[in-house]
Amino acid sequence: MEKIKINHSNHPFYASFKELYTTSFPIFEQRTEPQQEYAFSCEKYHLIGYCDEENFVGFIAYWEFDNYLYIEHLAINTSLRGKGYGSQLLNDFISSTSKIVLLEIDPVIDEISEARLRFYKKCGFYSNPYLHSHPAYRADYPPHRLIVLTTQRPITATEYEQFSHDLNSVVMKFL
């Protein structure tokens, strides 16, 4: 699978990213265009597209901090789900760093959310016990509860506080 760094909205694969992004996440979890431009302007932010031959398979949008990588968004093309691309993409990403990889998922409330948690645990993620709310990307939506997952091990309370600070002061700064 080919990795492609998408670093501006005029990139040839930006439209493929944007289409998958808007169909994979609810509106309150999506950056507006100005927010996306802010992210592109931050050296800690990375948007990697993945292609297999001529197919846009998916993407990982992440932030690189001193002690961990935070996956803000990850999605696989709906027509390619269930074919191992998600596991391959995520396992390659995790093995590319010695840092903890951190991401958030919706609370487990149904079979789909249970399957999502099983998928991430199969990829080596641990659940963390912290009550966590993610700020909404849109002013007319409230923050939403999410579960924090990490590779290597559950994080300490101090590490969680650092993540929460980074999330609010760097990742969501533009809001």
Automatic annotation (TrEMBL):
Domain N-acetyltransferase, residue spans: 4-144
GO molecular function terms noted in the UniProt entry: acyltransferase activity, transferring groups other than amino-acyl groups
InterPro entries for this protein: Acyl_CoA_acyltransferase, GNAT_dom
Against SUPFAM superfamilies, the record matches this protein to: Acyl-CoA N-acyltransferases (Nat)
Entry keywords, A to Z: Transferase
Q: Does the keyword Metal-binding apply?
A: no
What name appears for this protein in its UniProt entry? Answer: GNAT family N-acetyltransferase
Tell me which species this is from.
Capnocytophaga stomatis
Organism lineage: Bacteria, Pseudomonadati, Bacteroidota, Flavobacteriia, Flavobacteriales
